[in-house]
Amino acid sequence: MFGYLILIATCSLGFISITYKGYALSRGWPIGKILSNELSTIRLASLVAMVWALFRSVILFEWHSFLVVLICGFILAYLLSVAFKKNVQLIVIFGTFPAFILTILYRPEKSFFYFITELF
User: Fold this and answer.
1) Half-sphere exposure of 114 (CA within 13 A, CB side)
2) Please, which contacts does 65-70 make with residues 24 or more away whose CB atoms are closer than 8 Å?
3) Interval 51-63 mean pLDDT
4) Cα–Cα dist 81/24, whole Å
5) For residue 73, which of 35, 23, 17 has the smallest C-alpha distance?
6) pTM across the whole model
7) CA of 19: how far to CAs of 16, 28, 64, 106, 116, in Å?
8) Which residue has the higher pLDDT, 112 or 88?
9) Sign of CA pseudo-dihedral 105, 106, 108, 114
10) How far apart are CA 93 and CA 99, in angstroms?
């Protein structure tokens, strides 16, 4: 369950970073310099993280789990965008790299923090 939460959060950050510019323009929200550039580091990292999260869901769980991660990530991205409005870009900026790292380090649960204790 913890793995699904990490993968869904990573996927939702990818959706937000990809779609924020168009969504913000249609709503009249400001767009920061980081997300306004099409090839910014955050946007590319979140796209790679999103694809990696979908790939990891297939490897770690069943083959159709990427659909669960994709659909729930999209729903979470929409809910975050509606709830935080123009401040959702801060969530993307500060959340992309930690989510990507957690997605890379995640191993199936033997205990709650198994992926951290494996490093030490």
Assistant:
1) 9
2) 65/4, 68/4, 69/4, 69/7, 69/8, 69/11, 70/11
3) 89
4) 9
5) 17
6) 0.83
7) 5, 14, 24, 26, 32
8) 88
9) positive
10) 11
DSSP state for residue 38 in the 8-state scheme: T
Q: How many CB atoms lie within 10 A of CB 25?
A: 11
Q: Residue 60 to residues 21, 24, 47, 91, 109: CA-CA distances in angstroms?
A: 32, 35, 20, 26, 11
The amino acid occupying position 31 is I
Residue 4 has pLDDT above 60, yes or no: yes
Residue 65: which of 2, 1, 4 has the closest Cα?
A: 4
Give the closest residue to 88 by CA, choosing from 44, 39, 46, 41.
46
